[in-house]
Structure formats: structure tokens, C-alpha cells
Amino acid sequence: MDCSPPGYSVHGISQAKILERKQMRKKSIHHCQSTDKDVIKETHTENLLTNLSNAYASDLLPSKEGEDLTRCFLLRVVNILLHYIEKTFDVKSKILDFHHPHQLLEGLDGFDLELSDHPESLEQLLVDCTDTLKYGVKTGHPRYFNQLSSGLDVIGLAGEWLTATANTNMFTYEVAPVFTVMEAVLLKKMCEIIGWREAEAEGIFSPGGSISNLYGILVARYKQYPEIKTKGMTVLPHIVLFVSEHGHYSIKKAAATLGIGTDNVIEVKCDERGKMIPAELEKNILQAKRKGQTPFCVVATAGSTVFGAFDPLHDIADICEIHKLWMHVDAAWGGGLLLSRNHSYKLSGIERADSVTWNPHKLMSVPLQCSAILTREKGLLGACNQMQAEYLFQPDKVYNSNFDTGDKTIQCGRHVDVFKLWLMWKAKGTYGFEVQIDRYMELAKYFYKVLKKKDNFKLVFDAEPEFTNVCFWYFPPRLEHIPKSFERDQELQKIAPKIKAQMIVEGTVMLSYQPCGDKVNFFRMVFSNPATRQTDVDYLIDEIQRLGKDL
């Protein structure tokens, strides 16, 4: 039944206007029409330069006769994306065209973020798509080193496009038959790579490493205190968990979210390279017990965010076994190193963990987001989280309902994050990932050796990098020969932020910086971008010197 006022459409547009738009749409479609064979043969932008100013989203499929217009519109979108991808890999292009937040809010050259009550044309939407990319950051640019997740893998991108087109939910096999089985295949592979050869291991893909770490702590608590699920925290003793002082901040966030409390996350001292000291862990556990606290979990780190440090997993596992504690390994950053026969020894002992976080969207360069929580004991995720919603998880389905994985999660709706990883694994093979990761390690070693020879750069650690993280200070000429002192450090503290600000304004390169403990602001270089070459590393060094020499 049409509940619209007489003479008006559902969009509040008059019937006369609708007829006028239909006539204009037919004219627009005339310029877009071509056979499927022509579309395959001729994908040049000139064939797609048609005016869509009089066409609207309501004219696209499933609208009647919307097929040609839909094809035309989507081909135009693809051309915008292809142009952006080509610019992304061009080292001469800027990484970003920086503007302040207030400028974006106020509007830039017709790019208006405000939302209207009335529909805008498809032509305007194409302009908006172009502007959105124009004012964003090219995270696939060869000189983008800002985050642990960087790069743009074309196969992964294709996987993400297909995933969005399928637009389904991971909670049941019923609505995602291929994707749920793919997830099972990938999880089995990842568990085997960790070293869990028995068939009991399981896992799920989650919305990022922070949530995967939360799952690890959630399951650790449930394993020790299953009554938590129904009775809540009031029936538990004063529980505490342990993490290295360089562990990821998501551990404290998880403790806050789960009602454990951040005060009950005990940070363990690390050595000069950022690795947890086992003797300090043992001491902290005994101190907690003397205070009447009840330890239940230790979170070890395999690849810390800033220093790229790997905790001594075997030593930590020994302590966990003695005290009967759950061992979770946050390998969000370092997990990909398991694929390298040259470097996987750095995670030796991970096979003894009870749960592991692993983010393929970091070292493996899978498009965001792609993270897995893996557990050595099958059934715990389900027992901990399942609520057996009858409208989703009926036991008498026509297929094997073990593939209905949604009740293992704290979510209901769950995005498909597996296909892009599966497709990339098919494209590269395990050995292809290994070659990619080994090359990152070689680039880190090259960068370290170059910096070590330069008087105006100082490494945070003198020894060769253990991972792709390389941390360093740049000393402008005025500070280069001043002995270390409080006053010098106060000046040095300002250098990295000033250079970074100029990098962003000029859009030439992006690099992260931070202070850490008693160390004033230093740069953190990480290699996880498949497009980066030695020439880009050399460029970065020259650029830092250019921007910083007069500071």
C-alpha cells in the first residue's frame, strides 16, 4: 500500500519530477549501453564518461530497467578506485593531502560531509567517492610506515570486494556456507602452524587484535571459574592477571570491559630490549598470592608494538604450568613470523600457550581487518559464550550444525574477514608469505646498518633488530655533539614531533614516534608494506635530515 501523499514519491519528489528523471535516465543509459563483450574488451574511462547528474540511487537495481545504469555507475566507481590504486603505488605521489578536522567539517571544494533529507545524484556520489579518497591517507604507498598494518595487496582487495558483494553474516552455515567452511580451513591451518597438532584446537575470526585478546582473557577466566557466566564477578575471589610492561594496552581495556579492573592487571618488568623477565613474573605471582589475590592468567607478547620484542615463551610457560595459570600469547604483530623458517624460532614455546591472538592484517599484509583468536582446547569458546538463541541455532537443521559458529562469539552479526585471507593464501602459498616476511626482515637489517653508520642518528638499541621494528632518534646539527643531559633531552623530545608534523603537511612520508619510559620521543620504523624497497628506506633517511637539519 502506498502511504505517500498524493502526487509525491517516497523521496518527497513530485510524480512529474519522477517522469522527468526517467526520461533523463534513458538518455544517460543510452551513452552507457554496450554489450557484455564490449565491456570486457573496452574498459577505458572514455567509454564511461557519461553524465549521471539526473540519475539517482533509486534508479539502480533492483529498480526495473536498472541493469544498464547499475553497470555504468559501478564501472565509473571501479575507474575511480583503479586511478587511486595506481597513484598509491606511485612513489612520486603524495601520501596524503592534509587538512585539519575543522576544514573537513566546514567543507572543501564542494566536498560536503553534511547529510541531506533529499537524495543526491549518482554523479555527485561519484564526486564524493573521489574526494573521500583524495583527502584520505594512501596506506599502501611505498613510503607509508606509520602503522603495523600497511600496504595494499591487490588480491586481498579483490577478496574484500567480493566479500562486500556477498554481504552475508558469519553466524551460521545456513547463510554463509562457503565462508564458514573457509574459516574452519584457515583456523585449522593456523593452529597447525602454531604447533597444535592435536585435532582439538579451534578458534574464530574477530574484529581486531584487541577483541581477540579480550577473548583470550574471557576464556581464561571461564576455564578457571565457569560459574562466572551465570553468577557474575561477585562469586569470584580477587583475581589478577599479568602482562609485560610493554604489553599492548588492549589487555587493560579487556580487564576494564570484563569487570576485572585495570588495577588487577599487574605489569611485569622487562629487560633492556623490552622482553618480560621471567624471574620478575615469578616474583609478581608470589607477591600477589601473599596479598590474598588469585592469579589466573599470564599474557605473553610475541612482537611488542613499539620495540618488536618477543617474550621468552618457554620460560613463561614453565611458570604458568607450576602455578596452574592460563597462558595467552598476544602474537597480533609477530604471529606472521611463524611462516618464516628463518625466523619462526623467535616464537618457540608458543605451542605451549592455551590461547593465541594472531592478526594477518599486520605482518601478512591482509587488508583490514583480519584477526583470529585461537584456543588449544576445543569447546571452550562455545561453552563460555553460547546462549543458544532458538531462532538461529536450531539443533535439527538439515546440515551439520557444528558449522554454525556464531554461538562461539560475543557478537551476533559477524563480518566475513576470512575470504580475503583465503584468497591471498591461494595466490601466494605459504612460501609466498615467507618470502614477503623475510624481505621485511632484510629491509629492517639494512635500515639498521645504514643508521648505525650515521653520526646524526642514534639507535634506541645498539644490537641488530629482532623484528622489523627499528627505533631511533635523529639529532639536528645543533644537538649532535651536546653530551646527554636533562636539558638536551628536553630539546630532543621536540624533534620527532616537529619532523612528523612537517611530513604530514608535505605528504611525502609517514612515520610513527613515541616516548617510552625514560626515553624521550623517538621514531619507530616498521616494515610490513609489500611495496617498500631499499630506495624508499634511503629516501626516508634523506627526508628526515632535510626536514630536521635546521630544527
Helix-residue proportion: 40-55%
**How does the overall form come out from the CA principal axes?**
globular
Q: Ranges with pLDDT <50 over ≥5 residues?
A: 1-12, 39-49
Structural class: alpha/beta
N-to-C CA distance: 71 Å
Gyration radius, rounded: 27 Å
Query: Strands of the largest sheet, in order across it?
Result: 2-8-7-6-5-3-4
Strand content: 5-15%
Number of helices: 16
Mean pLDDT comes to 91
Number of strands: 12
**Oligomeric form of this entry?**
single chain
Could you name the CATH homologous superfamily of the domain at 169-379? Answer: Type I PLP-dependent aspartate aminotransferase-like (Major domain)
Q: What is the CATH topology descriptor of the domain at 169-379?
A: Aspartate Aminotransferase, domain 2
What does this structure look like?
- The strands form 2 sheets. The protein has a 7-stranded mixed β-sheet with strand order 2-8-7-6-5-3-4, sandwiched between helices.
- The longest helix has 35 residues, at 418-452.
- The protein has a domain at 169-379: 3-Layer(aba) Sandwich (Aspartate Aminotransferase, domain 2).
- α10 (250-257) links the parallel β3 (239-244) and β4.
- Mean pLDDT is 91; it is low at 1-12 and 39-49.
- With 551 residues, the chain is of the alpha/beta class.
- 41% of the residues lie in helices and 11% in strands.
